[in-house]
Amino acid sequence: MNLRKIYQMKVLSVKDLTPSVRELRVSTFEDEFQFRAGQFVMLHVPTGEEKPALRAYSIASTDQNKNGFTLLFKYVENGKASEFVWKLKGDETLQFTGPFGKVFFQEPPTDQIVFFNTGTGLSQHLSYLESKKHQYPHLKYRLFFGVRNESEIYYREQLEKLRGELPGFSFDYVLSRPGENWNGLKGYVQNHLDSTDFENTPTTFYLCGNGGMIKELKQKLLVEKNWNPKQFWAEAFD
């Protein structure tokens, strides 16, 4: 595939998942778009000038679909991409280049897969799960999804569906500023490392999201635990 090729994609749907997270589903017009789970694309954001602004977004859907993909966007005040994406209504044509990135799902997999993500970093891990669930249905998958409060929770239905399809899959939302009635996990995702029993089970870690979270888990695992770096994959997604 020519990575410099510009792909024209039609916006199939626009959906606000939370007050600050928007989902776009896009479809190819003619050419197939092939990628591997874990990769990202560059959205060409019009600027009114000759060259567009380029912004990277991880694909949040299965790599078995060659005719389009799903992207998640976090609203950034005064951000060029946010202003552009939040004006979309559907049926528009967007331009992308890609796919890019080499943070792939490692095969053969270990017995346990642990995901730590924050914000829209879920997108990369959701692509892994949707792409590999039929090939590896009996692994132990553990996912920690960090958001600020209850209003920022999204994709519960999708995660519940995966839990029904994968007998070893479990997930938790981890809220850093929960309301008083929140009964789930609190604090930050990295605070819950020890609940994964990783020292007694062959485990691969995938991290996507806040750079501070990644730095802290790198210190705990790669430095303090002398963890195998081939079983630790991270992509900052601030």
Secondary-structure map:
Layout: E1 7-16, E2 21-28, E3 40-45, E4 53-58, E5 68-74, H1 80-85, E6 93-100, E7 112-118, H2 122-132, E8 140-147, H3 156-165, E9 169-175, E10 185-186, E11 203-209, H4 211-224, E12 232-236
Parallel strand pairs: 7-8, 7-11, 8-9, 9-10, 11-12
Antiparallel strand pairs: 1-2, 1-6, 2-5, 3-4, 3-6
The CATH architecture classification of the largest domain is 3-Layer(aba) Sandwich
Helix % is: 10-25%
Number of helices: 4
Q: Give a count of the beta strands, DSSP E runs of length 2 or more.
A: 12
Report a brief summary of the structure.
This protein is an alpha/beta fold and 238 residues long. It has helices spanning 80-85, 122-132, 156-165, 211-224; strands spanning 7-16, 21-28, 40-45, 53-58, 68-74, 93-100, 112-118, 140-147, 169-175, 185-186, 203-209, 232-236.
What does this structure look like?
With 238 residues, the protein is α/β, with parallel strands linked by helices. It has two domains: 7-100, Translation factors (Elongation Factor Tu (Ef-tu), domain 3, Beta Barrel), CATH 2.40.30.10; 112-236, Rossmann fold (3-Layer(aba) Sandwich). Helices cover 17% and strands 34% of the residues. It is built from four helices and twelve strands, in the order βββββαββαβαβββαβ. It has helices at 80-85, 122-132, 156-165, 211-224; strands at 7-16, 21-28, 40-45, 53-58, 68-74, 93-100, 112-118, 140-147, 169-175, 185-186, 203-209, 232-236. The strands form two sheets. A six-stranded antiparallel β-sheet has the order 4-3-6-1-2-5. The longest helix has 14 residues, at 211-224. The mean pLDDT is 95.
